[in-house]
Design goal:
alpha/beta; 394 residues; globular; 39% helix
Length: 394
């Protein structure tokens, strides 16, 4: 089903807030996970009070965390509430991977995906005035105009995060509701925000609206719209092509650095093993991590003996072991959200490195993380002929 969310006074964010409120009022959800505005910043939040939705802003161009981490906490394996989940495309892909890893559940969930022009680094965003200067409901015009034209937005001289500049999957996959921004006129002359709703969800909404006697108020239920046209598709293709060029350039540079003397060791030379990248990563889900135990708190003699053997011992050590272990665990499911890079105090391009390795692993298995919840994870799936495919004798 294709419909439109009506927009008044060119206020796109308020229109989306009203849409989320409708989902509550017709009884489709009991709670919604959505970013809220708070003192000029954006805070990921679980909302159960309708009045709090006046602070919701899923178009705010920052991503404090990859929301899949929060949804994993909220759903676990046996969710008890009907949860609406508003996510960016990379967050939704990460959530799909966590469902496959049995770390989250979509039971009773309503996935609401929004086209994503990209996000900015939190620190730079706040230095530029946060939401209080040109980023609020009325100040998001450049962000939306860029989406309409199929380019990356630059707000007050601020560029997108590196991961967003090279993101080739800015469209949500598998969402129950897909709110379209790319190639769409969201000005005051536009009829509304195009929304694609899965047919089974649309049928359930209509039934819920009738039961809750809210069918008249939920105007978008009866506002028919045509599917995305060739013009919109052309804008999306243009954006993806531009970002693919950036991605290829950046990943080629990383592969070149990996082939130089030092390779991986050189790339992670400034790693301080703070574990920030692991904490920020939505795919690192282990409840008990070896690297957060005392396993690497060696006795003094260990360091002295190692230094005597090598001539010098790095303090603190085991940084490469930490990164290689993490890479081994999650490279097949890496969605290139870049949150690890944003979290690194040493400004190591962690996301670029993991994207380069992840792309190689995913290509080997013809696997796209987050593409389909029914698609099995390659590293936990055995195929009888997989050894012969890589040249092993029968």
């Amino acid at each position: 089903m294709n419909t439109l969310i009506p927009v008044k006074n060119n206020d796109i964010v308020s229109a989306i807030r009203g849409f989320l409120r409708d989902l509550f009022e017709i009884g489709l959800v009991d709670a919604i996970y959505v970013p809220l505005e708070a003192n000029g910043a954006i805070v990921p939040a679980l909302v159960t009070d309708l009045n709090q939705l006046k602070h919701a802003n899923p178009l705010a161009p920052v991503m404090p965390i990859n929301g899949a981490r929060a949804v994993s906490v909220l759903t676990g394996k046996h969710p008890s509430k009907r949860l609406g989940i508003v996510l960016r495309p990379c967050e939704m892909r990460a959530l799909i991977e966590l469902v496959k890893l049995q770390q989250a559940s979509l039971e009773g969930a309503v996935l609401i995906g929004i086209d994503c022009p990209g996000t900015y680094e939190i620190a730079r965003f706040m230095e530029n005035g946060g939401l209080t200067q040109n980023y609020g409901s009325a100040g998001s015009s450049e962000y939306l105009v860029a989406a309409k034209e199929g380019r990356s937005p630059i707000l007050n001289g601020l560029n997108l995060r590196p991961a967003c500049q090279m993101c080739t999957q800015p469209i949500p996959l598998g969402a129950d509701f897909h709110l379209h921004l790319f190639g769409v006129d969201c000005s005051e002359h536009a009829p509304g925000i195009p929304v694609t709703i899965k047919d089974d969800v649309a049928a359930k909404i209509a039934e819920q609206a009738i039961l809750s006697e809210n069918n008249g108020r939920v105007a978008w239920l009866t506002m028919n719209a045509v599917p995305p046209d060739d013009g919109q598709k052309a804008v999306i293709e243009k954006l993806i092509a531009t970002r693919q060029q950036v991605r290829q350039k950046e990943l080629t540079a990383i592969h070149n650095r990996l082939s130089l003397e030092g390779g991986m060791l050189g790339l992670f030379a400034t790693c301080i093993r703070c574990h920030n990248c692991m904490t920020a990563c939505p795919i690192c889900y282990c409840k008990t991590c070896l690297f957060k135990t005392a396993s690497f708190d060696h006795a003094p003699e260990h360091y002295f003996n190692s230094a005597k053997h090598k001539g010098a011992q790095r303090m603190l050590g085991d940084t490469i072991l930490f990164q290689m272990t993490r890479m081994n665990h999650m490279s097949a499911s890496c969605v290139s959200c870049g949150m690890c890079t944003s979290a690194c105090p040493s400004e190591i391009p962690v996301g670029m490195i993991f994207s380069a390795v992840g792309e190689s692993v995913q290509s080997a298995f013809d696997y796209v993380p987050g593409r389909d919840v029914a698609e099995q994870l390659p590293l936990i799936t055995f195929q009888p002929n997989e050894w012969t495919e890589v040249g092993e004798a029968r």
